[in-house]
Write a structure and sequence with these properties.
alpha/beta, TIM Barrel, ten-stranded parallel sheet, three-stranded antiparallel sheet, S-adenosyl-L-methionine
Length: 413
């Protein structure tokens, strides 16, 4: 008999062992082949027949992900593609195994996002309602008063959110010294008085601006890469892919946590999902937070017009299974990152959200609104998570995941 996890299996399998392959779980991984209802079925058993440490030589990419002692940033596109194309049942299962290895499976980070400066952006992102190039009905506004921001943060805390995020529709922070100062002061107040983590997204920032925000106590800075490098020029032309990566480097160098992810449903292919994941997973340090957005097509934007013309059978139309595959693959190759269901979650049925959590998501945006689109409300989210046996993730965790009490921080119940 051979030990298989916590069970034992008989050595003499009735079906022939067609091949012997190396396994990270032991010396060999027999390939058990049979035909069920006339369909050839191949099942790989990871069987531990050795007391030695597993070898990664000739291992499957998914086995490498599951058996390394620390996150890797040397993933190749071929390895990511192999994981992404793993049969869905195994992919989701192994992603959940990985998730439980690195995270408390009973916790979900609740984040609330507030638009502190809406509209008037000079960029030409095809999907965005806040660009001044498109007629979407979103008007350019000034930055809202600090007292309104603090009131929104208090409400978010009262409803159970532990990270408060602020977004401003700016291309960059050049010439916005007074705005940056107000934001920094607001961040300090929210951290100290409310005990909430803080995240901002203000467009491109340089090294000094990132350091200024870090000194104010900012937890994380969001700057999405949006999609793959190859598909990116089809989405935006006023800011390069490398511009985005430079901002992310500035944020990382300043000691801030990096929040970066993208949008699925921009007319990209599955190869673009793989390219998107490759960029993130080969960063010097994986993102602390990885938001996954599902496109919400907004009337008046070029992306909405483009996507509405595609037939329902087009392979450029996003399928839900592609969202799951992207999340599960991200969890396997970036195991320490917090994966957040962001914009577009309200378009998912509850069972679809459940599958996203099974695939490795452990954070959501919740509250009254995203930047310009709808958001699932606190009450319905709290009830949904209660039903699933989940609870809010505490604020201010150290690198081992242990909550760090801040001055005036209250316990999360």
């Amino acid at each position: 008999m051979i030990k298989f996890g916590q069970r034992y299996i008989i050595k003499g399998l009735k079906a022939p062992l067609q091949a012997q392959k190396y396994s990270t779980a032991g010396e060999f991984r027999p390939q058990h082949e049979a035909k069920i209802f006339g369909i050839e079925n191949k099942v790989h058993f990871n069987i531990n027949t050795s007391n030695e440490e597993p070898s990664l030589t000739n291992a499957r990419a998914i086995d490498i992900a599951l058996n390394t002692n620390k996150p890797l940033n040397t993933w190749t596109r071929e390895q990511i593609k192999e994981i992404y194309n793993t049969p869905m049942m195994e992919l989701v299962h192994q992603a959940q195994v990985q998730h439980r290895k690195y995270h408390n499976s009973g916790e979900v980070q609740l984040c609330t996002l507030l638009s502190i400066k809406t509209g008037g952006c000079t960029e030409d992102c095809k999907y965005c309602a806040q660009s001044n190039r498109y007629q979407t009905g979103t008007k350019a506004e000034k930055m809202i008063p600090v007292k309104d921001i603090l009131e929104a943060a208090r409400k978010a805390k009262a409803m159970g959110s532990t990270r408060f995020c602020m977004g401003a529709a700016w291309r960059d922070m050049h010439g916005r010294k007074s705005g940056l100062k107000r934001i920094a002061e607001t961040v300090s107040t929210i951290n100290k008085d409310l005990g909430l983590e803080t995240c901002v997204t203000l467009g491109m920032i340089n090294e000094d601006q990132a350091k200024y925000l870090a000194d104010a106590g900012l937890t994380a800075y969001n700057h999405n890469i949006d999609t793959s490098r190859e598909h990116y020029p089809n989405v935006i032309s006023t800011r390069s892919y490398d511009d985005r990566l430079k901002t992310i480097k500035n944020v990382n160098d300043a000691g801030l946590k990096v929040c970066t992810g993208g949008i699925l449903g921009l007319g990209e292919s599955e190869d673009d999902h793989i390219g998107f994941l490759h960029t993130l997973s080969t960063m010097e340090k994986h993102p602390e937070s990885l938001p996954i957005n599902r496109l919400v097509p907004i009337k008046g934007t070029p992306m909405e017009a483009e996507m509405s013309k595609l037939p329902s059978t087009s392979n450029r139309k996003l399928k839900f299974e592609s969202i799951l595959k992207t999340i599960a693959t991200a969890r396997l190759i970036m195991p320490e990152s917090i994966i957040r269901l962001a914009a577009g979650r309200y378009t998912m049925r509850e069972n679809e959200q459940f599958l996203c959590f099974m695939s490795g998501c452990n954070a959501i945006f919740t509250g009254e609104k995203m930047l310009t689109t709808m958001c699932n409300g606190w009450d319905e989210d709290i009830e949904m998570l209660r039903k699933w046996g989940l609870r809010p993730m505490p604020s201010f965790r150290d690198e081992k995941g242990t909550p760090v009490l801040m001055e005036k921080q209250e316990a999360v119940v």
